[in-house]
Design goal:
about 725 residues; alpha/beta; 7-stranded mixed beta sheet; 27 helices; globular; binds cytidine-5'-diphosphate; binds magnesium ion; RNA helicase; mRNA splicing; hydrolase; hydrolase activity; nucleotide-binding
Length: about 725
């Protein structure tokens, strides 16, 4: 059985610290906002209304003036900028003065590291400088972004500056969307896309310069690209590599890239005054955050507000709460407040709204995840409210699956957030944690994703590129050896690698599909099982997330509607049911409303579904529907998620609801699952979350005999007894 259980990476410096405890509590109840306003001002169920003013005063009193920020004359008020011509705007950016120096440095050095404040013009200007300097004669220019939204919005801006239609000379490419053509010379793309391009062209021959932007984010894909491109530059002496970021440990980066040249462009930051929260951080930081926002709105003459929260659900609730309050109390404020959410799952056009300047007599408040930390420049922000937390992917070393977890941010992130307030004028930053917490509980730097997330996809990619020994790959910060081994084992069980660790045909096909290895396996198996139509919809629905909407006042009704979609086989088929009924009802908005379904998410699923259909078509896979033969769908799910098997020991009787996973964790079916009352003996689950108990989410009934058939290397029984314990059934696998 799983002999190699990697060590847990220590994300919290001190798991008993206050910040760590808040993060954990928040995870258990993300939606809890015990927030209401009283007649006399602001208040909450946890704080006496009268105290609110004091909180704010305390915030003021404990202020520490930020030392790092220095005012500079190079910055131009953004209101002036709006009125300038595009050329004047470009020339007003801090990076413009370094144009010649950048061109020369790129010409003379194989690798260049550029550091400049967010908003200086790195992302939009450097590719244009290089094009203007004639690099195009040697090939296209690629610029990677960790986030899809940043790639799209920046490409749109540069197309404007360049004077072309987006997708022509200037374009972008992100997962499921290619807005570029053979004439594209400046191509913005996510780092994942460039990694994919390395698969078919290891030297990236069509490019003259590769810019790895936002390098400080240290996404898994960027980290892998560091290692791959370091080698590519040696093989192809004419290739140029630029690493750019607002903040990073340049000594470390320079050393990794064989003493690469570093160019630091002085920032144009205005001073930002910092305020710390003197109360102990509690789980109601949301309450404090909203109160702070309203206080700013009430007391400060102008300037937009940026509030950092952790995730979509929290942000949506915060927007709702704020909107409700503003609606009722409009007369108390001098300015109108425009409330804008921002998170990566938001449709792109709604994300772009945050970039538009607020109209006269209005103030914007943007409530964002850490998407707004560095990769997107939002002009006009004067106030930042920082909750001190972020959602991050953390790998559960026991199952090898990633979980999104709320954790305290790092000091580097906190300062990056603070910096958002001083781009266009002096600003203020309210940190909803104490100075002591900042100094003692936050880690100096964020742990790179490669050291905390599941490596399977990356390992498969590296293998497919031809990297024989992943353990010896040149990582800037290597992942834990045991995590690499877990991924190799998982890929072997998926059939993507053979016993020698070489990529199989199946593995190669998996790399062609833009989804994680277990989903890719599910898709490929579905082709043989003739149920691809269903599996594509299920994958699309899984990627869209929870589509059921449960308004506070109509919970019973919403629950009833939800029940009408239930399926005896489980939640994957419930999701399929929802999608199919939506389809039958001509994708109607009205129908979504009456059935308490989140239309935005369904549209997202529709989008993913169409993209996957196109890709399957490109590789000439035939798309069949299983009709009513659900067993095939269940088997396909099993083939990808065979490590997520749970069994309810039969001897325990009807009242015992405990399930055991393959690594012996005791779990329960989540009450939101359609199998909650049914309690089947064997299930496959999509993920495991831990709140008050360990819960299994998105479950489907399976027949254990399939496991033996689908994953003989992992499950084997000579004399099968369906009542056997899971461990009798697990075959000892030495890998
Ligand atoms: O990459 P960096 O943070 O250094 O700056 P940038 O993204 O190149 O942005 C430079 C300037 O372009 C910003 O100050 C914005 O005013 C403007 N910009 C924009 O108007 N719209 C965008 N989508 C991106 C940038
Ligand atoms: Mg940028």
């Amino acid at each position: 059985t799983s002999s190699k259980i990697p060590k847990q990476i220590n994300i919290f410096r001190d798991p008993n610290s206050n910040m760590a405890r808040v993060a954990k509590a928040k995870m258990q109840n993300p939606a809890a906002i015990p927030f209401y306003f009283t007649e006399s001002g602001f208040g909450s169920s946890w704080q006496k209304p009268a105290e609110l003013h004091t909180i704010f005063e305390k915030l003021r009193l404990s202020s520490s003036v930020s030392a790092s920020a220095s005012s500079s004359s190079t910055s131009i008020d953004y209101k002036k900028r709006i009125k300038m011509s595009i050329r004047q705007q470009r020339e007003s950016l801090p990076i413009f003065k370094f144009r010649e120096e950048i061109i020369k440095a790129v010409t003379d050095n194989p690798v260049l590291i550029v550091i400049a404040e967010t908003g200086s013009g790195k992302t939009t200007q450097i590719p244009q400088f290089l094009i203007e300097a004639g690099f195009i004669l040697r090939g296209k220019i690629a610029c990677t972004q960790p986030r899809r939204f940043a790639a799209m919005s920046v490409a749109t801006r540069v197309a404007d500056e360049y004077g072309c239609i987006i997708g022509q000379e200037v374009g972008y490419k992100i997962r499921f969307e290619d807005c570029s053509n053979p004439n594209t010379i400046i191509k913005y793309m996510t780092d994942g896309i460039l990694l994919r391009e390395c698969l078919s062209d290891a030297n990236l021959d069509s490019y003259s310069v590769i810019i790895l932007d936002e390098a400080h984010e240290r996404t898994m894909h960027t980290d892998v690209l560091f290692g791959l491109l370091k080698e590519a530059v040696k093989r192809r002496p004419k290739l140029r590599l630029v690493i750019s970021s607002a903040t990073l440990d340049y000594a470390k980066f320079s050393q990794f890239f064989d003493n690469a040249k570093v160019l630091q462009i002085p920032g144009s930051m205005f001073p930002v005054e910092t305020f710390y929260y003197t109360y102990q951080v509690t789980t109601d930081y949301l309450n404090a955050a909203l109160n702070t926002v309203l206080n700013i709105h009430m007391r400060e003459p102008d300037g937009d507000i940026l509030l950092f929260l952790t995730g979509q659900e929290e942000i949506e609730r915060a927007c709702e709460t704020l909107e409700e309050y503003i609606e009722k109390n409009r007369s108390r404020f001098n300015l109108d407040l425009i409330i804008l959410p921002m998170f990566s799952a938001l449709p792109p056009d709604m994300q772009s709204d945050v970039l538009l300047p607020a109209p006269k007599k209005c103030r914007k408040v943007i409530i964002a995840t850490n998407i707004a930390e560095a990769s997107v420049t939002i002009d006009g922000i004067k106030f930042v409210v920082d909750c001190g937390f972020a959602k991050q992917k953390i790998n559960d070393p026991k199952t090898g699956m990633d979980m999104l977890t709320i954790i305290p941010i790092s000091q580097a992130s906190a300062n990056q957030r603070l910096g958002r307030a001083g781009r266009t004028a002096p600003g203020k930053c309210y940190r909803l944690y104490s100075e002591k917490a900042y100094n003692e509980e936050l880690l100096p730097e964020t742990i790179p994703e490669i050291q905390r997330a599941n490596l399977s996809q990356v390992v498969l990619h590296l293998k497919a590129i031809g990297v024989k020994n992943i353990l010896e790959f040149d990582f800037m910060d290597p992942p834990h050896k045991d995590n690499i081994l877990t991924s190799l084992r998982q890929l072997f069980l998926l059939g993507a690698l053979d016993r020698n660790g070489d990529v199989t045909d199946l593995g190669r096909k998996m790399t062609e599909l833009p989804v994680e290895p277990n989903l890719a396996k599910m898709l490929l198996v579905s082709v043989g099982l003739k149920c691809t139509d269903e599996i594509i919809t299920i994958i699309a629905m899984l990627s869209a997330g929870n589509v059921f909407y449960r308004p506070r006042k109509k919970q019973t009704l919403a629950d009833e509607k939800k029940k009408s979609f239930e399926h005896a086989v489980g939640d994957h088929l419930r999701a399929l049911n929802v999608y199919k009924k939506w389809e039958i009802n001509h994708y109607s908005s009205e129908w979504c409303k009456t059935n308490y379904l989140n239309e935005k998410k369904l549209l997202e699923a529709q989008d993913v579904r169409e993209n996957l259909l196109t890709i399957m078509d490109k590789y000439k896979y035939e798309i069949y529907s299983a009709g009513f033969n659900y067993e095939r769908v269940q088997m396909a799910i099993c083939s990808g998620f065979f490590q997520n098997i749970a069994r309810r020991p039969a001897i325990s009787g009807r009242n015992n609801k405990v399930y055991k996973t393959i690594d012996e964790q005791e779990c329960f079916i989540h009450p939101s699952s359609s199998l909650f009352h049914q309690l089947p003996s064997w299930i496959v689950y999509n993920n495991l979350t831990e709140t008050t108990k360990k819960f299994l989410n998105e479950n489907t009934v399976i027949n254990p005999l399939w496991l033996q058939q689908l994953v003989p290397d992992m499950y084997r029984v000579t004399d099968f007894n369906p009542n056997a314990d899971l461990d009798d059934f697990l075959h000892d696998l030495i890998f």
